[in-house]
Amino acid sequence: MNDRTDARQEAGHRIRTLLGPDGEPCRSTTPGTLGGHRRGRVYGRLDCPSALRAIARGRYVSQRVFFADETTAIEAGYRPCAVCLPEEYARWTQSGEEGEENGKDKQAQSPGDTS
């Protein structure tokens, strides 16, 4: 057995790596309930059609992360997916947080916007 196998199995349980609220990996015997994309800082359902299409095209997998729950994903700085979580995404856009993601303001994201 190698270290990788040992890391996946402790006391007969499969060990999974999830992201914690600080955005750092943590080990868990419980599978994540949400998936995400590290570079895009977006989270969504594990059966998200958009994510599954990207995975099928051979993309996304190297940037895939998992979360125990929505609160953890938000605390780690991820936003909801517009495709599989449209209500959460609408609330997120209305909250004004979309302009603050990754330390950017709305003007920096949309230089042509004069509002």
Major sheet: 4 strands, mixed
Separation of the first and last Cα atoms: 60 Å
Task: Evaluate the radius of gyration.
Answer: 16 Å
Q: Could you give the order of strands across the largest sheet? A: 7-5-6-8
Number of helical segments with 4 or more residues: 5
Task: Please state roughly what percent of the residues sit in beta strands, choosing from under 5%, 5-15%, 15-25%, 25-35%, 35-45% or over 45%.
Answer: 15-25%
Helix share, percent? 25-40%
Q: What sort of overall outline do the alpha carbons produce when their principal axes are compared?
A: globular
Report a brief summary of the structure:
It is built from 5 helices and 8 strands. It is α+β, with helices and mostly antiparallel strands. The strands form 3 sheets. Strands 7-5-6-8 form a 4-stranded mixed β-sheet. Strands 1-2 form a two-stranded antiparallel ribbon. Strands 3-4 form a two-stranded antiparallel sheet.
Q: How would you sum up this structure, described in words?
A:
- This protein is an alpha+beta fold and 115 residues long.
- Helices cover 30% and strands 23% of the residues.
- The protein has helices at 3-8, 49-56, 70-75, 86-95, 106-109, and strands spanning 9-10, 13-14, 16-19, 25-28, 34-37, 42-45, 64-67, 79-80.
- Residues 1-11 and 101-115 have low confidence and may be disordered.
